[in-house]
Design goal:
- By secondary structure, the chain is an all-alpha fold.
- The chain folds into two domains: 52 residues, no CATH class; 75 residues, Cytochrome Bc1 Complex, Chain D, domain 2, CATH 1.10.760.
- It contains six helices and no strands.
- The protein is rod-shaped.
- Bound molecules: heme C (HEC).
Length: 179
């Protein structure tokens, strides 16, 4: 460009046409080039602004996602807790309705000493319990359990009944009374 300017200076006086050419060929393209580069600079800076503006939005999105995930987790935990409570309630109902073991099942352990139909004198010492009514048997068994009933061999019977629940004592007593 300087070369051209110098050239123009050397030649006498530039004609209007020459000046016009100079403007068209040199000044305007340069001015346009400068203008374009300035514009692209602006674009660059604005695009970096977009980038920085994006970051907080992304953070908000991440936080939103986490909040949603936590809400879902809480809902699942709540649902599991509700189901667990329902299962517990159902289990309690079943337990209340049916004794843990039937009288017949419990009596299999007793029959070893008392006989299959409860007519034996256990270990040569006990009374024959066949024919006793349920209340009398229950009374004896509860007495062995809390130590308020029995003869010389009550220790043996205490070992037999301590693990039995009230329901199980009732069930086995009713079973024996019907033998
Ligand atoms: C190891 C043998 C043995 C087993 C098993 C056994 N008993 Fe006995 N049972 C005895 C003896 C011995 C006596 C007498 C105890 C005493 O001196 O009071 C007795 C007493 C009893 C009595 C009261 C009778 C009495 O003499 O006053 C009842 C009722 C009875 N047993 C029920 C049961 C039941 C129900 C079971 C099962 C849960 C059972 N027994 C298991 C040995 C046994």
């Amino acid at each position: 460009m300087f070369f051209i300017v110098l050239n123009i200076n050397k030649s006498k006086i530039p004609s209007i046409k020459e000046f016009k050419d100079f403007m068209m060929k040199i000044v305007i393209p340069i001015a346009l080039a400068l203008l374009l580069s300035a514009c692209s600079e602006e674009n660059k800076s604005s695009s970096s602004q977009v980038k920085t503006a994006k970051e907080p939005t992304q953070k908000v999105e991440v936080v939103e996602k986490k909040v949603q995930e936590t809400a879902v987790e809480e809902a699942v935990v709540e649902e599991v807790e509700t189901v667990a409570k329902e299962v517990e309630a159902a289990a309690a109902e079943v337990k209340a309705a049916v004794p843990a073991r039937t009288g017949q099942t419990i009596f299999t352990a007793c029959s070893a000493c008392h006989g299959a139909d409860a007519s034996k004198v256990a270990l040569g010492k006990s009374q024959v319990i066949k024919g006793w009514d349920s209340a009398k048997i229950q009374n004896a068994l509860n007495g062995y359990k809390d130590g308020t009933y029995g003869g010389a061999m009550k220790g043996i019977m205490k070992g037999q009944v301590t693990a039995l629940s009230d329901e199980e004592i009732k069930a086995v007593s009713e079973y024996i009374s019907k033998l």
